[in-house]
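User: quick one, fold this
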Amino acid sequence: MDPANPLRVSEESRRGIVSTAAVMTRREAPAWRLVATLTFAGALAGLLLVFVFDATQPRIEAYKEKMLALAVGEVLGSPSDVETLYRVDGRLVSELSAGIHDRTTDRVFRGLGDDGSQIGFAIVAAQPGFQDVVRLIFGYDPSDGEILGMKVLESKETPGLGDKIEKDRDFVGQFHGVLAPLIGVKSGKGTGGPDEIDMITGATISSRAVIKIINQAIEGWSPLVTDYGVEAGE
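Assistant:
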C-alpha cells in the first residue's frame, strides 16, 4: 500500500488477492465431484449388499428349512414320515398349482407313523410377546384335541425371564399331552386340569403369549386338519 495514498493498492497486494481468490475458487469448484463420489460410493455399497443378500439368502433359507424339519420331528415325536400340506382356498392340498410359491403359502406338516396312520399335525404360528414377536411350532392331534409338544423357534423375550418359555424344561414339558384349548394358571395355583398350563413366575406375559398363540392357531387350523383327517380315512 502506498503511504501517500492509503486507498491505492500495490501491485503485489493485488496479486495476492487474486491468488487467494483463485485458490478459493479451485477449492470450491470440486463440490460436484464430492457429490458424484458419494453417489457412486452409495450405489456401489448398495450393489454389494444386493450381491451379498442374493448369495447368502438361499443358504439362510435352506438352514431355516432344516431347523424347521428338525422341530417338526421334535413336536410330533419323531414320525416315520412327514407330509407337507398347504392351505389354498380354505382347504388343505399336498401340491400347489403353478405360480404359487410354497414359501409364501400357509402350510402345516402331517406326521405319519410306521403303519401310515396319522400321528398329528405340526403347526407354526406367531404373535407378539412381551418384547417382540414369538414364533413357535406345536404338535396337535385333532382327533382328541391333544397337544403333542411345543418348541419356540424365534423369540427376543427378556433374558433370564421371558426367554424361559424356550429354556425352562418344566414349562415346555407341560405342552406334551395337555388338551386344547389351553388355560394359563399361576404356578402352583392350578387344579390339575388336563387343559392347564402353569405360567412362569415373573414371565406371565410371555407365558400367556405362548398359550394364546397355540389357542388361536388351533382355532384357525382345527377345521382344516380335522376335515383332512376324515378325507384321508383316519
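User: anything notable?
Assistant: DSSP finds five helices and eight strands in the chain.
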